[in-house]
Write a structure and sequence with these properties.
alpha/beta; 3-stranded parallel sheet; 4 helices
Protein backbone atom coordinates (compact mmCIF):
# COMPACT_ATOMS: atom_id res chain seq x y z
CA UNK A 1 0.00 0.00 0.00
CA UNK A 2 1.54 3.30 -1.11
CA UNK A 3 1.03 6.03 1.49
CA UNK A 4 2.55 8.72 -0.69
CA UNK A 5 5.50 10.93 0.17
CA UNK A 6 6.34 11.54 3.80
CA UNK A 7 7.26 15.11 4.65
CA UNK A 8 9.31 15.58 7.80
CA UNK A 9 8.81 18.84 9.64
CA UNK A 10 10.97 20.60 12.18
CA UNK A 11 12.21 19.06 15.39
CA UNK A 12 10.93 20.80 18.51
CA UNK A 13 12.42 20.66 22.00
CA UNK A 14 10.01 20.77 24.94
CA UNK A 15 10.85 19.72 28.51
CA UNK A 16 14.00 17.96 27.24
CA UNK A 17 11.95 15.81 24.83
CA UNK A 18 12.58 16.05 21.09
CA UNK A 19 9.45 15.88 18.94
CA UNK A 20 9.54 15.58 15.15
CA UNK A 21 6.39 16.20 13.14
CA UNK A 22 5.64 14.22 9.99
CA UNK A 23 2.93 14.44 7.34
CA UNK A 24 1.95 11.58 5.04
CA UNK A 25 0.56 13.92 2.39
CA UNK A 26 -2.72 13.61 0.47
CA UNK A 27 -4.00 10.14 -0.39
CA UNK A 28 -7.24 8.25 -0.93
CA UNK A 29 -8.70 7.05 2.37
CA UNK A 30 -10.68 3.81 2.72
CA UNK A 31 -14.37 4.55 2.96
CA UNK A 32 -14.01 7.97 1.39
CA UNK A 33 -17.30 9.24 -0.03
CA UNK A 34 -17.54 10.90 -3.41
CA UNK A 35 -19.24 14.20 -4.12
CA UNK A 36 -22.10 12.40 -5.89
CA UNK A 37 -23.36 10.91 -2.60
CA UNK A 38 -25.74 12.68 -0.23
CA UNK A 39 -25.73 11.22 3.27
CA UNK A 40 -28.36 11.94 5.87
CA UNK A 41 -27.65 10.39 9.28
CA UNK A 42 -30.21 10.28 12.09
CA UNK A 43 -29.54 8.98 15.56
CA UNK A 44 -31.06 8.84 19.02
CA UNK A 45 -34.73 9.16 18.07
CA UNK A 46 -35.69 7.43 21.35
CA UNK A 47 -39.34 6.86 20.52
CA UNK A 48 -40.05 10.40 19.28
CA UNK A 49 -41.93 9.29 16.14
CA UNK A 50 -43.51 12.69 15.47
CA UNK A 51 -40.13 14.42 15.58
CA UNK A 52 -38.69 11.77 13.25
CA UNK A 53 -41.53 12.34 10.77
CA UNK A 54 -40.77 16.07 10.84
CA UNK A 55 -37.08 15.49 10.19
CA UNK A 56 -37.88 13.16 7.29
CA UNK A 57 -40.28 15.73 5.80
CA UNK A 58 -37.45 18.28 5.87
CA UNK A 59 -35.02 15.85 4.22
CA UNK A 60 -37.63 14.87 1.63
CA UNK A 61 -38.14 18.55 0.84
CA UNK A 62 -34.49 18.93 -0.15
CA UNK A 63 -34.01 18.69 -3.92
CA UNK A 64 -32.01 15.69 -5.03
CA UNK A 65 -29.49 16.53 -7.73
CA UNK A 66 -29.45 14.39 -10.85
CA UNK A 67 -26.86 11.66 -10.76
CA UNK A 68 -26.50 11.62 -7.00
CA UNK A 69 -27.06 8.74 -4.62
CA UNK A 70 -29.07 9.58 -1.51
CA UNK A 71 -28.23 7.46 1.53
CA UNK A 72 -30.18 7.55 4.78
CA UNK A 73 -28.43 6.10 7.83
CA UNK A 74 -30.16 5.45 11.14
CA UNK A 75 -27.46 5.41 13.81
CA UNK A 76 -29.42 3.45 16.39
CA UNK A 77 -31.56 4.10 19.46
CA UNK A 78 -34.87 4.43 17.64
CA UNK A 79 -36.64 2.94 20.66
CA UNK A 80 -37.03 3.55 24.38
CA UNK A 81 -37.69 6.63 26.53
CA UNK A 82 -40.20 8.35 24.22
CA UNK A 83 -43.91 7.78 23.91
CA UNK A 84 -43.98 6.03 20.51
CA UNK A 85 -41.12 3.58 19.96
CA UNK A 86 -43.22 1.40 17.65
CA UNK A 87 -44.18 4.45 15.58
CA UNK A 88 -40.51 5.48 15.37
CA UNK A 89 -39.52 2.04 14.08
CA UNK A 90 -42.42 1.96 11.58
CA UNK A 91 -41.51 5.45 10.36
CA UNK A 92 -37.85 4.48 9.95
CA UNK A 93 -38.78 1.34 8.01
CA UNK A 94 -40.92 3.40 5.61
CA UNK A 95 -38.47 6.32 5.31
CA UNK A 96 -36.67 5.37 2.08
CA UNK A 97 -39.41 6.25 -0.40
CA UNK A 98 -40.45 9.30 1.64
CA UNK A 99 -37.11 11.00 1.10
CA UNK A 100 -36.27 9.40 -2.27
CA UNK A 101 -33.36 7.46 -0.74
CA UNK A 102 -31.40 5.05 -2.88
CA UNK A 103 -30.22 3.18 0.21
CA UNK A 104 -31.28 3.00 3.84
CA UNK A 105 -28.92 1.64 6.47
CA UNK A 106 -30.25 0.83 9.93
CA UNK A 107 -27.66 0.28 12.63
CA UNK A 108 -28.73 -1.00 16.04
CA UNK A 109 -28.02 1.16 19.05
CA UNK A 110 -27.47 0.07 22.61
CA UNK A 111 -31.22 0.32 23.33
CA UNK A 112 -32.09 -2.05 20.47
CA UNK A 113 -29.32 -4.43 21.51
CA UNK A 114 -30.59 -4.41 25.09
CA UNK A 115 -34.10 -5.30 23.88
CA UNK A 116 -32.75 -8.14 21.73
CA UNK A 117 -30.81 -9.40 24.74
CA UNK A 118 -34.01 -9.37 26.84
CA UNK A 119 -35.97 -11.19 24.13
CA UNK A 120 -33.21 -13.80 23.72
CA UNK A 121 -33.22 -14.52 27.45
CA UNK A 122 -37.03 -14.36 27.76
CA UNK A 123 -36.62 -12.28 30.93
CA UNK A 124 -38.74 -9.09 30.81
CA UNK A 125 -37.38 -8.08 34.21
CA UNK A 126 -34.12 -7.18 32.46
CA UNK A 127 -35.98 -4.56 30.40
CA UNK A 128 -38.11 -3.13 33.19
Amino acid sequence: MDLGPIEVGETLMSDNVATTTASLGARHLPGQIGFSTEIFAIGDVHGQAAVLRGVLREIGGQPKALGTERVLIFLGDLIDRGADSIGAVRTALAAGPLIRADRVVMLPGNHELALVDVLDRCDPALWL
